[in-house]
């Protein structure tokens, strides 16, 4: 969808949302599971993300991930405007690489979860067609450029391409789950499904993600990822990131061979 149309649709929807939005939506990677009472567990279908899912995925990511992810909260992202540029870009790349999945409530047919993955190429070996898809200099938002530099910094001591002996890696950029569907282990299922496709259909030899909170780190570790490096937020920047202490006090680089 064209950027201007995305922006128009999102503004119309966002400003008509109920006042208790913060209680009914939150980001899967940065918030603990909500306890939900189901008369019967909902049937959730996982399927490869397609262009038909684009708008619902866009809405879910902005409403959940960018609202509550620790770094975004700390830097006070302006919702809904500031995340639009990055979200449009990463959704487009994820659709192109065909390795992202959505979780659909089979009864309502609503998209209630998404994992956005892209294929990361070794830039030193790649052609111009595979330049860095997340070049920090391309984004207008200073806060977004700052966060991407934090994520880049956690790679400073290790070359995952060399470590995992490959020139292509699955990169999980975002996982977002509707708050009403917590406690169903959807994050773990989405990660596991992504790994299976990366290994068996795309012939990838490794996968990685930068976990910016305790909960996302735990989900990846449960799927066999190892922690390769980490940075403590207050040691990286004790002024702008001073409020990031406690359970969400670090960014960890996690990876696994496939």
UniProtKB/TrEMBL annotation:
It comes from the Eukaryota. It catalyses: dopamine + acetyl-CoA = N-acetyldopamine + CoA + H(+); serotonin + (9Z)-octadecenoyl-CoA = N-(9Z-octadecenoyl)-serotonin + CoA + H(+); serotonin + (5Z,8Z,11Z,14Z)-eicosatetraenoyl-CoA = N-[(5Z,8Z,11Z,14Z)-eicosatetraenoyl]-serotonin + CoA + H(+); serotonin + acetyl-CoA = N-acetylserotonin + CoA + H(+). Its EC number is 2.3.1.87. Keywords: Transferase. Transmembrane segments: none annotated. InterPro entries: Acyl_CoA_acyltransferase (IPR016181). GO terms for molecular function: aralkylamine N-acetyltransferase activity. Coiled coil: none annotated. Gene3D superfamilies: 3.40.630.30. Belongs to the acetyltransferase family. AANAT subfamily. This is aralkylamine N-acetyltransferase. It comes from Rotaria magnacalcarata.
């Amino acid at each position: 969808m064209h950027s201007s149309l995305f922006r128009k649709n999102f503004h119309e929807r966002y400003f008509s949302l109920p006042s208790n939005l913060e209680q009914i939506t939150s980001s899967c990677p940065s918030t603990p599971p909500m306890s939900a009472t189901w008369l019967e567990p909902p049937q959730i279908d996982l399927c490869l993300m397609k262009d038909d899912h684009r708008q619902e995925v866009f809405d879910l990511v902005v409403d959940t991930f960018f609202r509550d992810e620790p770094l975004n909260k700390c830097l006070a992202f302006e919702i809904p405007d500031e995340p639009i540029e990055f979200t449009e870009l990463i959704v487009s790349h994820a659709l192109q690489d065909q390795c992202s999945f959505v979780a659909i409530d089979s009864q309502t047919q609503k998209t209630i979860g998404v994992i956005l993955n892209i294929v990361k190429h070794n830039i030193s070996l790649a052609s111009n067609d595979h330049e860095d898809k997340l070049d920090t200099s391309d984004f207008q938002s200073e806060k977004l450029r700052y966060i991407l530099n934090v994520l880049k910094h956690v790679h400073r001591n290790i070359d995952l391409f060399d470590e995992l002996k490959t020139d292509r890696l699955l990169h999980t950029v975002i996982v977002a789950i509707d708050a009403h569907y917590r406690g169903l282990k959807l994050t773990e299922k989405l990660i596991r499904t992504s790994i299976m496709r990366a290994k068996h259909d795309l012939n990838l030899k490794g996968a990685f993600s930068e976990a910016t909170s305790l909960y996302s780190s735990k989900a990846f570790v449960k799927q066999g990822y190892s922690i390769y490096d980490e940075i403590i937020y207050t040691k990286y920047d004790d002024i702008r990131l001073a409020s990031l202490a406690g359970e969400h006090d670090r960014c960890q680089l996690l990876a696994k061979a496939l």
